[in-house]
Structure formats: C-alpha cells, structure tokens
Specification:
- The structure holds two protein chains of two kinds.
- By secondary structure, chain A is mainly beta.
- Chain A contains no helices and twelve strands.
- In chain A, strands 2, 5, 6, 10, 11 and 12 form a six-stranded mixed β-sheet that branches. Chain A has a four-stranded antiparallel β-sheet with strand order 3-9-8-7, with no helix packed on it.
- Chain B has no helices and eleven strands.
- Classes of the chains: A mainly beta, B mainly beta.
- The interface of A and B includes residues 43, 51 and 90 of A.
Chain lengths: ~120, ~120
C-alpha cells in the first residue's frame, strides 16, 4: 500500500526567508507526486506535480519541489516566503499501479509566514 | 473556464438521515473523484467515477455511494448518517484522456454537520 508522510504539523518562517515543507512517500514502482494548498474554507488548489524527468519541478506562485528517489522525498520549497503563503499544504502520491486517479494524501503541514 | 462546483456548500443533518451531495466537474472533464476530509483522519479517498462507471473505491462502508451521469456530473449519497460522517466532502475532476497522470482539480467542498 502506498503512503505519504509529512513529518511537520506546522512550519513557521519569516516573510522573505526561504521555506521548505517536507514530504516522504512509500509506493511500489515509480511514484507520481503532487502538492496541493488549502486556504481556509476552500478546496485544494494544485501547485505542482512530478511525473518523470527533472528532479526539480517548478509550479504555481513561485513554488518548486525537489524529487529525491534515494531518500523517497518530495520537499516543497520557495526561495522567499510571503505572508499570503500561510495555508495548509498537502503532499499526495498516486501509485503507478492504480487503475484510476486515487490520490493518497499526507496529513498536511500548516505553514505560518510571519511579517 | 469555470472550476469544479459543489452544492450545497453547507449542510446540517441529524443522525439516521440520508444526504445527497452534488458535483459538477470542469467542462470536458470525464473523471470525478470524491474525498472526505476530517481533522482526525485527514483526506481520504472515497471513490472515482469515469464514464458513468465506478473505477476505484476507497475503504468506506456501503452507506457511502455515488453515481455519475452522462454529462459527467456526479452525486454522492450517504445513508443512515452517523456523527462521524461530519466532514468536508471534496470533489475533484480530471480530463482522464488516457487515464494516466492527470491533475485533479478540486471544488470548494460541501461541509456536512451531523447532529
């Protein structure tokens, strides 16, 4: 069975500083990895995905993520955090053997960016 | 292009009742998936529909069911509601052209409170 772990419930960072939100995964075969963000009283917004190719994936709103196969990680990063980035972030994996679109999500990490 | 829409946005029911939630996917999207989000269990996959057929199912009791119509709109039904069914129910759609590796786009969710 596939699984995703987000080891930090909350990450605090000062505005303008770089941020990292960690994600590790477990899946048979090559993983398909996603990051989503959720603002209060809203659904999930897609940020970026890794399917194959370059290990550094660039996404929306200046976010990027680095895929590391040996460490089974897919950490979300941004060079300079904004207060408006404060939200709940979810990492998700879709295993290659799925017949459909089922995503397995991590528990989420709350990002707090302070002015 | 309009995003995924879900109705109603908020719902209050009592134990034992049943409820039907509706989801309209992005125009042209053929796959619709449903997820349940709770503080305790996080985001969990309920089921996926593609071309009016259930393609994948999560680990939920038979009280949870769904269907998809020929226009790709989907409904999910929960019968004999329990207090633990209180949650945010999220719908996601994707193109599903080749059934592979496509991004799911989420609606704002329906928040269900069971009293």
């Amino acid at each position: 069975a596939q699984s995703v772990a987000q080891p930090e419930d909350q990450v605090n960072v000062a505005e303008g500083n770089p941020l990292t939100v960690k994600c590790t995964y477990s899946v048979s075969g090559n993983p398909y990895l996603f990051w989503y963000v959720q603002y209060p009283n809203r659904g999930l917004q897609f940020l970026l995905k890794y399917i194959t190719g370059d290990n550094l994936v660039k996404g929306s709103y200046g976010f990027e993520a680095e895929f590391n196969k040996s460490q089974t990680s897919f950490h979300l990063k941004k060079p300079s955090a904004l207060v408006s980035d404060s939200a709940l972030y979810f990492c998700a994996v879709r295993g290659p053997n799925n017949a459909g679109n089922m995503l397995t999500f991590g528990g989420g990490t709350r990002l707090m960016v302070k002015p | 292009k309009a995003g995924v829409t879900q109705t109603p946005r908020y719902l209050i029911k009592t134990r034992g009742q049943q409820v039907t939630l509706s989801c309209s996917p992005i125009s042209g999207h053929r796959s619709v998936s449903w997820y349940q989000q709770t503080p305790g269990q996080g985001l969990q996959f309920l089921f996926e529909y593609f071309s009016e057929t259930q393609r994948n199912k999560g680990n939920f009791p038979g009280r949870f069911s769904g269907r998809q119509f020929s226009n790709s709109r989907s409904e999910m039904n929960v019968s004999t509601l329990e207090l633990g069914d209180s949650a945010l129910y999220l719908c996601a759609s994707s193109l599903a052209r080749g059934g592979m590796l496509e991004t799911q786009y989420f609606g704002p969710g329906t928040r269900l409170l069971v009293l």
